[in-house]
Design a protein that fits this description.
It is built from 17 helices and 27 strands. It is α+β, with helices and mostly antiparallel strands.
């Protein structure tokens, strides 16, 4: 009797499961979200053209190959110049039959909605279809293209829900990018620390992308979440090569895609506590062994002159954990020979920290050597921390560290050589600025924004630069920007957003008011500096320029003209005849949003990136900028020397610099 009961129970359970899956599939066959885009570009075709015939042929046979059961279709048809390329991607948790059904619907609907357009895109709940007259396979297509929409329901505990979402998306991004050539998709869930909420998510790329391309695409998509879906329980961001979705309920099929569970920090800590006894003894043994090896190498190894030596430099404790990095250590005599004994003919520039010299290594590679002066205010420990920090930051818009030297009382940092010097060298010179057309200036703005986003969100360390300005933006041979001078950078822990400091360092005109007046340091400090930089790049004027008797610097001048509808007065005369006037005005708008007086009103760099890349999103109206001279002129009476401020009876020092000088002070946390 017992066996019969169990058998009946299992049969009933199987039947109910079958009904549930069938119901889900039937629901999936009728997606309720359809988003075509017919304005991507690449021109039009006529109904009698070869392109039209090729398109109809390709789409009518698009899903006929039933051996493709992993949800990605990529075909072309026809001869140049009338070749049609099409790509279809199904959500990673749908079955092959549902996938083909969705794509078949899309192949019929998209040409109808986007009649005579050579390039078109359509997003369903369960699949994406696009076609073009240009090849798309293996190409990260149009990073600026984006759909973003949200579930209007607000999260009960928005802060905890957002933290759980951030943790989940970082894990899904990495796992999706790590997928193979058939699938690049990951799904999972993350719970809040105490409120009991769970957020479910899915991230996916077209599998023809490389791991790095998929990672870049999803980073771009994740950066759009705050702008579209802040404090919402659900949302989606759709790119041409990737997409993501999150909801408070499980929307994907866990029987098709194995979900990942991302534990809250407390659970992770409890797990570590249960295993600490098991691993602590081997860690101590390894640490002692490495220490002995380091002492042995230090005492026994002799460095040959005029040669480059690889050495392991032990870092100080950064952000709560011991990290190690392999950095090239240069012999002092080698650098001396490389720079022709630091000759004046090789000097590239001079700042408050010391001088920078051009050099050439034995292999012909050109380098820039930063030689700190003995009175720069930076000691050996701070110097080592700066080197370790830059070594751990790797991004195409950050200047690349090649090595260092700490020998004979000298402190030298060796960077890649950038032939076009710094942005201020070109931007503020009437003759040289002619080389900076709008396309180049926009490229610089976007590049700096990406570098700051990496600092704030994507690097292993959360970094506040604290001295972003035109002279700290270096330009390579193609005028791509690279952020430099990390001596004033401040490290934050992963969950830290703000701190207070008694020592203020930076450059007047670029420092946010809450930082100068109250020592409040946050990511919004860099956002403020970036806003000033945008306005300088567009106007071609320094932030302390005097425009007329009624304005008090660039921010005041820009704000007055923006409010009066005279935005063209802000634009550099060299750009007045540009065909990109709307884009220029949008960048001015973004710049004014970044320099708002209240730090809370300023956008994050993630939001700034979306604002700069998407022209379809409406921007909020900016409020009054900070540091209009008529209200805070007493703060800026002396912008060329060290100033002081007092707070509650204590003596606090403000270390500042003019636009040509930087005072270096690294404060790791």
């Amino acid at each position: 009797m017992t066996r019969i009961t169990v058998t009946i129970f299992l049969a009933l359970l199987s039947f109910l499961s079958h009904l549930l899956i069938l119901s889900t599939q039937q629901e999936q066959q009728h997606p309720d979200t359809v988003h075509p885009n017919c304005s991507i570009g690449n021109g039009t075709y006529t109904d009698t053209s070869p392109y039209h015939n090729n398109l109809i042929t390709l789409l009518s046979n698009f899903t006929s190959n039933t051996t493709d059961d992993y949800g990605f279709y990529n075909y072309s048809y026809g001869q140049n110049p009338d070749t049609v390329y099409a790509s279809g991607l199904c959500r990673g948790d749908v079955t092959p039959d549902v996938c083909r059904s969705c794509l078949n619907n899309a192949t019929r609907l998209l040409p109808h909605n986007c009649s005579n357009q050579k390039e078109a895109f359509l997003y369903y709940d369960l699949c994406i279809l696009q076609y073009s007259s240009s090849s798309m396979f293996g190409i990260y297509v149009d990073p600026d293209f984006s759909y973003a929409f949200n579930n209007p329901e607000k999260a009960a505990d928005a802060d905890q829900y957002t933290d759980a979402l951030d943790r989940l998306m970082k894990v899904l991004k990495t796992n999706a990018a790590d997928g193979g050539s058939d699938r690049k998709v990951a799904a999972g869930n993350s719970s809040t620390l105490s409120s009991g909420q769970t957020v479910h998510g899915l991230a996916q790329c077209t599998p023809d992308l490389t791991e790095q391309q998929c990672d870049d695409c999803l980073v771009n998509a994740i950066s759009g979440i705050p702008l579209c879906c802040q404090n919402k329980v659900g949302g989606r961001v759709i790119k041409r090569n990737c997409n993501l979705r999150f909801e408070k309920v499980q929307f994907y099929n866990p029987t098709v895609i194995d979900p990942i569970q991302v534990l809250p920090p407390s659970q992770g800590n409890n797990f570590k506590s249960r295993n600490i006894i098991v691993i602590i003894i081997p860690i101590i043994a390894v640490a002692v062994f490495l220490l002995l090896i380091s002492i042995f190498i230090f005492l026994k190894m002799k460095k040959p002159k005029e040669a480059i030596q690889n050495s392991f430099v032990e870092a100080d404790q950064l952000d709560g954990e011991i990290k190690h990095a392999e950095i090239i250590q240069f012999d002092f005599d080698t650098i001396k020979l490389t720079t022709d004994n630091f000759s004046d003919s090789n000097k590239l520039g001079q700042g408050g920290f010391g001088a920078v010299y051009k050099g050439e290594l034995y292999n012909g590679e050109e380098v820039a050597v930063k030689r700190l002066s003995r009175d720069s205010g930076q000691g050996d420990r701070e110097f080592k921390n700066e080197v370790m920090l830059v070594a751990k930051l790797q991004h195409r818009n950050l200047v690349r560290l090649l090595g260092f030297c700490l020998e004979r009382g000298e402190r030298l940092v060796v960077y890649e050589y950038l032939p076009n010097k710094s942005l201020d060298f070109l931007l503020f010179d009437p003759d040289r600025s002619a080389h900076l057309n709008w396309a180049t200036r926009h490229q610089i703005i976007v590049g700096v924004a990406r570098g700051l986003l990496y600092f704030h969100e994507d690097s292993r360390l959360r970094v506040i630069h604290r001295d972003l300005k035109a002279s700290n933006i270096l330009l390579d041979g193609e005028l791509n920007p690279k952020i430099s001078d990390f001596g004033m950078a401040r490290l934050f822990s992963a969950d830290q957003t703000q701190s207070n400091t008694n020592r203020i360092v930076g450059t007047y005109g670029y420092m946010a008011p809450e930082y100068v007046l109250h020592g409040q340091c946050s990511m919004k400090l860099d956002v403020y500096s970036f806003g000033v930089l945008i306005l300088e790049i567009i106007s071609g004027k320094k932030n302390n320029s005097i425009f007329n008797e009624n304005s008090y610097g660039l921010l005041d001048f820009a704000w007055q003209n923006w409010r009066q509808g005279n935005g063209s007065n802000i634009i550099d005369p060299l750009l007045i005849n540009s065909d990109s006037r709307n884009e220029i005005m949008r960048c001015i708008h973004v710049g004014l949003l970044c320099v708002q007086e209240n730090a809370i009103d300023r956008p994050t760099m993630a939001s700034v990136g979306v604002m700069l890349s998407s022209h379809s999103l409406s921007l909020p109206v900016p409020s009054k900028p900070a540091f209009l001279m008529n209200s805070t002129s007493s703060i800026l009476k002396d912008s060329s020397s060290e100033a002081t401020r007092s707070s509650e009876g204590r003596r606090n020092y403000v270390q500042a610099s003019s636009n040509e000088v930087s005072i270096t002070n690294l404060s790791p946390r």
